[in-house]
Automatic annotation (TrEMBL):
One Pfam family per UniProt: RNase_T
UniProt similarity note: Belongs to the REXO4 family.
Keyword Nucleus in annotation: yes
Main location: nucleus
GO molecular function: 3'-5' exonuclease activity; nucleic acid binding
Keyword Nucleus: yes
SMART domains, alphabetized: EXOIII (SM00479)
UniProt subcellular location: Nucleus
Top-level taxon in the UniProt lineage: Eukaryota
Domain Exonuclease intervals: 108-282
Listed GO biological process terms: rRNA processing
Descriptive protein name: RNA exonuclease 4
Lineage, highest ranks first: Eukaryota, Viridiplantae, Streptophyta, Embryophyta, Tracheophyta
Length: 331
């Protein structure tokens, strides 16, 4: 009991964590839950049930093998659409961004992705050469080639498909930067942006810090939803999963085969975001361990009082130490 109390004080278990649908074990990462159900050393009871009626994409447990079949068909996406739309996106005509249309429809969510070419003497310096932004229905709202300010020394053609002539008259990065920055803030000064009830847009992406750094755009962390930094989607607390892996494993289709279009990455991150956001969780008034109301949840109890609690009671006062994206759905 003493150990359990110690564990609960520091583990921030909450309703927002990935949970085994059979034994109710809490996991910090979906990857650990996947291990628990289908890994090298799964828990046998859970594995047996999962094999019969578990969804191999979202890891949910359904009521029957038939319900699983129906569910899994909806849970798996195919890449056909993104291939087709990606080719349309290649036409590169979406280079205008409008601001000021978000006020009445609540906070808008957009996804951004870039493709980089190489600069510097060895071509290892990432320079943004293409950028795409989509809305939450996967419509392209911005898609353009970008002209870097320093010479490109490696076009990385095998993955980018970019030739020198595509960038020669492309939009200058300064202009791209300003358009995107204004679009994201949507007419609000940056210091006033807030994730709920504001008009600034929620920005979804994979490795956004790097993309924004290369675009020289600043945006508040509270407005970003990064699939490379979201604890449930990470491999460990230090290592991210690649977007390619996440898409294949959690959405059930392949991306980044051959020449890559940033539109495809936008769609994959948006789908991952939507899946995370649509999780059905109990929503408390003060969901985060960092909310002032929760600061003393464990500290205010004496050790022996905690030791008399059931695990369920302790779980009741435990809160998440990260912002669960399901909370966006009530914004
Ligand atoms: Zn949640
Ligand atoms: Zn289990
Ligand atoms: Zn599923």
């Amino acid at each position: 009991m003493e150990h359990l109390v110690e564990h609960m004080r520091i583990s921030y278990h909450s309703v927002h964590e990935p949970l085994c649908g059979i034994c109710k074990k809490h996991c910090r990462y979906f990857e650990s839950l996947r291990e628990h159900l289908t890994g090298q050393l799964p828990k046998p009871e859970c594995k047996d049930i999962f094999t019969i009626r578990g969804c191999r994409f979202c890891l949910a447990i359904l009521d029957s093998p038939n319900a699983r079949r129906v569910h899994q068909e909806r849970c798996q996406f195919s890449s056909v659409n993104s291939g087709l739309l990606g080719r349309l996106a290649n036409l590169g005509i979406h280079d205008n961004l409008t601001i000021g249309d978000g006020g009445t429809r609540g906070t808008q969510v957009v996804a951004l992705a870039c493709k980089m070419v190489g600069g510097g003497s060895d071509g290892s310096l990432d320079l943004c050469a293409r950028v795409c932004i989509i809305d939450e229905y996967e419509n392209i709202i911005f898609h353009t080639y970008v002209k870097p300010t320093i010479p490109v020394t490696n076009y990385r053609y095998e993955t980018t498909g970019i030739r020198p002539e595509y960038l020669r008259d492309a939009m200058p990065i300064k202009l791209v930067q300003k358009k995107i920055q204004d679009f994201l803030c949507n007419g609000e000064p940056m210091w006033k942006l807030r994730p709920r009830g504001g008009i600034g847009r929620i920005l979804v992406g994979h490795g956004l810090d790097h993309d924004l750094d290369r675009l020289q755009i600043e945006y508040p962390a509270g407005m970003m939803r990064d699939t490379a930094k979201y604890p449930p989607l990470m491999k460990t607390s230090k290592f991210s999963n690649s977007l390619k892996y996440l898409t294949q494993t959690y959405l059930g289709y392949d991306i980044q085969t051959g020449i890559q279009d940033p539109y495809e990455d936008c769609v994959a991150t948006m789908k991952l975001y939507m899946r995370m956001r649509s999780q059905v969780h109990n929503i408390e008034d003060y969901p985060l361990a960092s909310d002032p109301q929760n600061r003393y949840n464990f500290a205010s109890w004496r050790q022996n009082e905690l030791e008399r609690m059931t695990p369920e009671q302790m779980l009741e006062i435990s809160r998440s130490d990260y912002y669960c994206w399901c909370l966006d759905s009530r914004a």
